[in-house]
Fold:
Amino acid sequence: MTLLTARGLAKRFGSFTALDGVDLDLNRGERLVICGPSGSGKSTLIRCINRLEEPDAGTIVIDGVPAKDLQALRRRVGMVFQQFNLFPNLTARENIAIAPRKLLGLSRAEADARAEALLDRVQLAGHADKPPAALSGGQQQRVAIARALAMEPVLMLFDEPTSALDPEMIREVLDVMVELGQGGMSMIVVTHEMGFARRAADRIGFMDQGRIVAMAPPQQFFDAPPHPRLVRFLDNILGH
Amino acid sequence: MVQVLVRLLPPLGLTMVLSITALAIATPLGLALGALRAELSDRHPAARAIDAWVFFVRGTPILIQIFAIYFLLPKLGLQPPLFVMGVGALVLNSAGYQIEIGRAAVKSVPKGQWEAALALGFDRQATLRQFILPQAARRMVGPMMNELSQLIKASSVLSVITLFELHKAAEAISSANLRFSEVIVVEGFLYFVFIFGISLIASALERRLSASGALAGAGSFAR
Ligand SMILES: Nc1ncnc2c1ncn2[C@@H]1O[C@H](COP(=O)(O)OP(=O)(O)OP(=O)(O)O)[C@@H](O)[C@H]1O
Ligand SMILES: [Mg+2]
Structure:
């Protein structure tokens, strides 16, 4: 069953076309990985889905509801950023609890309990009282994932969640994401971690110059790349 | 010398009360108006009013600002006590500078903080109030202490409206005992000790805040 339908998404920055008429469908529980060269529009695409970027043209329907009310839409779509963007003046627990408390009307006790449970789920039980500055990059990113999950979203967006991490911390974040996907979460993940894509994706899309030019399940994507530019991209990234 | 010092202590107290009261009003006002200014387009009427305030304060000596309050308020039918006029003049002046400090502090909070809160479903106003202003306020601690020093110095000009603060008191004493240089040395010493003390507190506070990571990426907005 379809969760998200995007049609004809377009976005320009000045005279530069960042998104050039993108169509995208996502089924409930589906895990979609998006990759592509720098500047191809990957970030712009997922930022248009939760309208951090306002598309110039096109329609987005999530869960059968056209995205009219911005805040309502964003409460149902979680987002994880490359730079974590945790609130530096709040503890890990407060980072996670504040949105459900302020936006969903949970009591402090309920919101804290939800935060603790999520910290446990991302393997960070015992770190609840630390501010972000006291956590490693990998830990901060896992708190950021927990923060997004605290709103109980129907869809999670990830924009290069491991690109800012030291190599030894990438794994711990990817593991959390794999588990999230196995638990049935619908996800769109922009990443160049091809191991993750192979392991966890249902489909992989390849973007180039503002369009999705190829889309296939992992096996076909890697073994029989359906687009010449994708062949070159994979050669570069996999170091063939 | 000691006698002069002792007689200058109560007026020094008034100087401190004037400056701190003005700071306590001007800082939140400056942050609020600065945040508002950061959110408004240049052409918005409120933005123009705020800009005019900043322009006036920066473009005129504080003496003119004090007289503006002292002579214009009664023309408008208001006759507040001297202390209120004094604080009013200092607030007028200080907020004019702190609007710029507040605006810079709001702008210095990384865009990612806005995006994180907006992506969770907070609207712009709630994001500003809940996440951006608290971080901006921390970035204002250093400039604010600097502003207190400015205020203490500026408050000496309030002697022109016969407010009996430190400088007025020193004037009164020296014109009575005619030992001008002695009084000036003591007066200058008192100003210096307090302003220096404040700068020590300021750098200690800033060190603590930056050690806690609260000021990551914060710039400096000293005048
Ligand atoms: N706010 C903006 N203003 C102007 N140009 C922008 C803006 N955001 C993105 N762009 C441009 O749009 C193009 C696509 O950007 P986007 O961030 O979507 O690419 P990307 O595929 O995510 O690249 P990367 O792998 O480097 O993150 C880039 O050339 C970028 O310079
Ligand atoms: Mg990007």
User: Anything to note?
Assistant: Residues 2-39 of chain B form the longest helix (38 residues). The radius of gyration of chain B is 20 Å. The CA atoms of residues 175 and 183 of chain B lie 10 Å apart.
